[in-house]
Design a protein that fits this description.
Elements (H helix, E strand, L loop, with lengths): L3 H8 L4 H34 L4 H6 L4 H51 L2 H5 L3 H43 L1 H8 L1 H39 L1 H6 L3 H27 L1 H26 L4 H15 L5 H22 L19 E9 L5 E10 L4 E6 L5 H8 L7 E6 L2 E2 L5 H4 L3 E4 L10 H5 L8 H10 L3 H5 L18 H14 L4 E5 L7 H14 L4 E5 L11 E6 L2 E6 L1 H5 L4 H10 L8
Parallel strand pairs: 3-8, 3-9, 6-7, 7-8
Antiparallel strand pairs: 1-2, 1-4, 4-5, 9-10
Helix pairs in contact: 2-4, 2-6, 2-12, 4-6, 6-7, 6-8, 6-12, 6-13, 7-11, 8-10, 8-11, 8-13, 11-12, 17-19
């Protein structure tokens, strides 16, 4: 399997030049960072050897004070350059991390939007949120600091190794002796951290899912006085996350003490062997001081390997989850056919449909809805009404048969030719945080305030809107929590009307309103339905009695069809439903 970082390198090839620049800036910064130790050795060499020093030979300056002045100037330049390149490197890495984070979040969110409704319905919202938000943030943190640290550590070993090699091969071998132990320990810790951080990311997903669901269902929690029970559930998953993190922390924290012992060995060896060589005259005093400092420079930064590995493993666990999400393929793929004008004729031809791997919900359903007519679909709960609407909106495709719009299979159409020509009012109305006007104009953001007001009037919403503190500029709160169910339904209806669709689909659009408001909405629907196809799903039969044709579903099959008068005039499921809802029992007693 391709490494996650390799997949990112392939996916975001447009940033390769910036990545190379960031590595180059980090390299120059590290070179400048190593220079002060060399200058310290040169200064000691000047003090000890005077006119015979390396600086004297290089510059042709015999005076010790003047040599030290030159070293001070060089030192100042090195520090200024190191500061400059440190700033440029940090700026480049951080901007790169932010840009990749931005692009990856947008790509992940855009991909999620393109997945089927069935996928969303089968997956906790909090889990998806954890990937799109928290996992992407984990990657950003690694790109911001982790990559640069890893590269700096590698450069440190190369540069310091070059200085040691140029000075003494014996000391080089002794100083580098602990590094294989550190590398082996790093690989061992890496293997043991991978599964631990996978468990941590899964625990984060569970917490996000539970908290997200509970915040959305706060009214239910309070109404059942279940606060303590839900707090216990959150405590349980949070404790699982804490324990998973503690397990990972125990493994990563043990890494630093191991490196400290390795540093002790390397530093002590250089201190003793190098000192003896300086006393024997086989190693210059200035060079000895450089190597002592360089041993610290070589080994001490390796104490941050544990931190970098921690960032790395967290990021890789997150990247794997992000890429797994991006690998999800939608089952319903957009077609490429465009209808220049949609008349609104709908037809279902021997349609079978169901959910996931479950049994069929619709069994060989055939229906024809001529353009411009109002048709209703009724039936008991579980009859298949919602499944039928999912097919019309192409939230799912039939297992067999066809769903046609103006004679064209929906699978051939672009989303704009299909959903762009449909006004949909769901049973569970969703309003976005913002103003009433914003929500009505959601389907047509460019609509004027007058058009918004007219749509609200047609949906019998204008009166209650003008009664709110700021009218159309009143904030509705998250998911419209400040409004009643009936008010939300009327705003959703206004939103659909404003779009001026060729097909209007209403799923229990009046279920949450009183009889007076229902009558007002029915009058409005009679007006807005003129010239457009309207499909209505309802339990309340008074809502659909004026439809051109009513289709009665029972156990996923069409068992009756006709006008209201035709259906009530003969025995059948519709007549029975009408009798129950009007209070007329089978024996004729009300």
């Amino acid at each position: 399997m391709t490494h996650p970082l390799a997949q990112l390198w392939t996916r975001y090839r447009q940033y390769r030049a910036r990545v190379v620049l960031a590595f180059l800036l980090s390299t120059v910064r590290k070179v400048m960072d190593v220079m002060p130790e060399l200058l310290i050795g040169a200064a000691i060499d000047v003090v000890v050897r005077g006119s015979d020093s390396f600086v004297a030979d290089l510059l042709g300056v015999a005076d010790r004070r003047e040599q030290l002045v030159w070293l001070a100037v060089v030192n100042a330049v090195v520090w200024v350059l190191e500061s400059l390149f440190d700033y440029l490197a940090a700026l480049t890495w951080r901007n790169l991390a932010q840009q990749v984070e931005h692009d990856l979040r947008l790509e992940a969110y855009g991909h999620v939007q393109g997945l089927d409704m069935a996928w969303h319905e089968s997956r906790p919202t909090g889990g998806t949120l954890a990937v799109v938000n928290d996992d992407v943030n984990q990657l950003e943190r690694f790109l911001d600091a982790g990559v640069d640290k890893l590269w700096t550590l590698a450069l440190n070993i190369v540069l310091v190794g070059a200085v040691f090699a140029a000075s003494s091969w014996t000391l080089t071998l002794l100083a580098f002796l602990p590094i294989p132990v550190i590398v082996a320990g790093s690989l061992w810790f890496q293997r043991h951290l991978v599964p631990r951080y996978a468990v941590v990311r899964a625990a984060v997903s569970r917490i996000s899912g539970l908290v997200s669901a509970n915040l959305g269902g706060m009214a239910t929690i309070k109404s059942f006085t279940a606060e303590d029970r839900e707090l216990s559930r959150v405590r349980e998953v949070s404790e699982a996350y804490r324990l998973a993190n503690a397990d990972a922390i125990r493994a990563s924290a043990a890494f630093v003490p191991l490196i400290r012992m390795a540093i002790l060995v390397g530093f002590t060896t250089t201190l003793l062997m190098g000192g003896w060589m300086a006393l024997d005259g086989t190693l210059e005093v200035g060079l000895y001081s450089v190597l002592v400092f360089m041993t610290q420079r070589l080994l001490w930064p390796l104490t941050s390997v544990g931190e970098v590995l921690d960032l790395y493993q967290r990021a890789m666990a997150s990247v794997r989850r992000i890429l797994a999400l991006l690998d999800e393929e939608p089952l319903t793929v957009e077609g490429d056919r465009t209808l220049p004008r949609v008349r609104g004729q709908l037809e279902l031809v021997d349609v079978r449909a169901g959910y996931a791997d479950g049994p069929d919900v619709l069994h060989g359903v055939s229906m024809e809805v001529p353009a411009g007519q109002v048709h209703a679909v009724v039936g008991a709960t579980g009859a298949g009404k919602s499944t039928l609407l999912r097919l019309l909106l192409r939230f799912a495709d039939p297992r067999s048969g066809q769903v046609l719009l103006d004679g064209t299979d929906l699978r051939e159409l672009t989303w704009e030719s299909l959903r762009g020509r449909i006004g949909y009012v769901a049973q569970d109305v969703f309003l976005f945080e913002g103003t009433i006007a914003d929500n009505i104009a959601y389907g047509r953001p460019e609509a004027s305030r007058e058009e918004v007001r007219r749509a609200a009037e047609q949906a019998a919403a204008h009166e209650f809107v003008t009664g709110t503190p700021l009218g159309y500029d009143t904030l509705v709160g998250e998911r419209g929590v400040t409004l009643s169910g009936g008010q939300r339904q009327r705003l959703a209806l206004a939103r659909a009307i404003l779009r001026d669709p060729a097909v209007l689909v209403l799923d229990e659009a009046t279920s949450a309103v009183d009889n007076e408001t229902e009558a007002a909405i029915q009058r409005s629907l009679a007006e807005v339905s003129q010239g457009r196809t309207t499909i209505m799903v309802a339990h309340r039969l008074s809502t659909v009695r004026h439809a051109d044709r009513i289709w009665v579903l029972e156990a996923g099959r069409v068992v009756e069809a006709g006008t209201h008068d035709e259906l009530v005039s003969r025995p059948g499921p519709y007549a029975d439903l009408w009798a129950v809802q009007t209070g007329v029992l089978a024996d004729g007693v009300g």
